[in-house]
Amino acid sequence: MAASRAALRAMREDVRALDIRDVTANWVNAAVLEAQVEDRIKALADLAHTPLFFGRLDYLPAAQEGQSFYIGRRHVHDGAGDPMVVDWRAPVSRPFYRASRADPQDVALRRRFGYTGGELTAYEDEALTEPPSRAAGPGSGAAGVPGPAAAPDPAAASDASAGHTSALLRAEIERPRVGPMRDIVATIQPEQDEIVRSGLAGTVCVQGGPGTGKTAVGLHRVAYLLYAHRERLARTGTLVIGPNRSFLHYIEQVLPALGELEVRQATVDDLVAHVEVRGTDEPAAALVKGDARMAEVLRRALRSQVTTPAEALVVVRGSRRWRVPAYELAELVRELLDRDIRYGAARDALPQRVAHAVLTRMEEAGEAPDDRTQDAVARNPAVKALVKAVWPQVEPARLVLRLLSDPEFLAEHAEGLLDEAEQRAVRWAKPPRSVRSARWSAADAVLIDEAMDLVSRTHSLGHVVLDEAQDLSPMQYRAVGRRCSTGSATVLGDLAQGTTPWATSGWARALEHLGKPEALVEELTAGFRVPREVIAYASRLLPHIAPGLAEVRSVREAPGSLEVRTGAGAADVVAACRAALGRAGSVGLIAADARLPELAEALAEAGLPYLSPGDETTAESRLTLVPASLAKGLEYDYVVLDEPAAVVAGEPDERTGLRRLYVALTRAVSGLTVLHAEPLPPQLAPAGPLP
Ligand SMILES: Nc1ncnc2c1ncn2[C@@H]1O[C@H](COP(=O)(O)OP(=O)(O)OP(=O)(O)O)[C@@H](O)[C@H]1O
């Protein structure tokens, strides 16, 4: 490790010493090159607390010339240019994640290193092929490793390859959390790696219960794709979409820690922020506005802006007048309407079509017009006036405004699509006077985005990761789909955690709305976050919230990690938080949104400082007060859950309430304490004895 650190330092020095004076033609080039050199130096910085490698592969003599490779977060080479540490994403690193005894992939030995505060303190060996090859390998290099070897005996090694939890994996998961989400490069599991390394061309959808690593997998997939397709993605761009700001804040450090600084992160609301959102919808209105039928309503409404020319066009040029009859103009318009092009593109094409019709007449009259004549005709005031009248410019927000405020206009275009009640639900009670004064809702902004795309095509990125996808409405899927129409996507979600009125009931439908019906649906079933005792308790809700979904198989047992007791109010909650703070790591107090003011006051009175979700935990400040509505995607070493019945009652219907509770019950890594004064929701009672 010391040698590779030194080599990395030398690599940095090499870049620093580059003399670029002679290779740049002018100051602009020089400035660009200098910036690149600066970036490269930054990229080569040695992160004191991230070890340079976490694994080693010893190949069999017949493969890779029997070499050993150290696997790390980045590539390090020695003075001669030979690799000392290889990037975890390189093909030669792949068996580190995928090889097993059943399929050793030419590897004799896999070694995992354990660190404590940057110090190498342990290692774990797995012989993937029979011992003779191992003895011949360079395994003796381990002699100088300080500290105890974690699992050097072959029995433990075979256990690990059979999918049992290794001591290092367990230690990594249970390492106390401070600060934002961490990467998992050292311990990506085979079923996860398969998704991480799947090709750029295809869209992958991952269904996985709480804590199965969906978010982690999505982020590592981006890092992998950027490595494998660097140039292409640098050009086309990548985007990670998460449910809200606090979640994005929580995950925002993972990619930079993996050396990837160029990935944009946004919520769906950010993507469609064409108007200021100041209003909210009744659930009934939001449901209809988010329905895919609205796309057709919008399409019809937009097309209705085009009118059939009723009069002939007369173009005067010099002493001559050219006349194109109305029926011929109407045919041109019809042709454009029938073609599958955007409203704006068709509008741009119309003048040339009309000019062409005029030119045909000129030719018939014996003239010899050229391209310049056609351009001039297309710009003729009469042609311009015709286009303006027949194919007017449309402002998308105004179109949506009219649909939501003009009952007749809506009825005309929603006919056969939305019934009377649905039309009433989406209409504004008091129509706003202008786009600017309207109290737009989040769902309205999505409608405007759809209308904008009908007018001119939305720019598509190379790859989009969509997290917590189960909560999107069909119209939101469409908005995301537009942003990867020429690229691919990674869709991550859990049907059991859907808490919006329009939550997805099945992935096939969702993928259709996204425009990726051919996507592969994969399932992650191993749970990393939540210990077995806790997930078993939470899973009692599954038959009520997502029948058919299998219970997460936790990789860890943690006896005593679950405590359910009656408490007599805020004082008990404070006491439970104090107890949790007595241990290392982060603590989340999760409660129904309505209970937050009372609990905040109790914490303040008790002199317990607390953070809000999205604030970074530090060694000094480890307690976060989390409204149940923001708990999704987050995790804490210890969770105190206040009053489950109130969490359920906080939602408009019981199923959503129980799903919210399921989310809240599955945030803990090391311990969950449930406190209740009211009776627990009956669905949490243990399942009865089998008949
Ligand atoms: N292979 C792994 N090695 C170590 N830790 C892992 C691994 N996979 C997942 N984890 C850890 O498990 C926890 C849960 O992961 P993550 O948040 O990605 O799960 P999720 O499926 O998105 O959960 P949710 O459905 O609750 O949002 C994280 O702390 C993550 O670092």
Can you give a write-up of this model?
This protein is α/β, with parallel strands linked by helices and 691 residues long. The protein has five domains: 2-185, no CATH class; 204-273 and 460-527, P-loop containing nucleotide triphosphate hydrolases (Rossmann fold, 3-Layer(aba) Sandwich), CATH 3.40.50.300; 290-303 and 395-440, no CATH class; 313-390, no CATH class; 532-684, P-loop containing nucleotide triphosphate hydrolases (Rossmann fold, 3-Layer(aba) Sandwich), CATH 3.40.50.300. It is built from 30 helices and 21 strands. A six-stranded mixed β-sheet has the order 3-4-2-1-5-6. It has a six-stranded parallel β-sheet with strand order 9-8-12-13-7-14, sandwiched between helices. Helix 15 packs antiparallel against helix 16. The longest helix has 22 residues, at 343-364. Residues 132-163 have low confidence and may be disordered. Bound molecules: adenosine-5'-triphosphate. Adenosine-5'-triphosphate is lined by residues 169, 172-173, 182, 184, 187-189, 192, 208, 210-216, 494, 497, 528-529, 633, 635, 666.
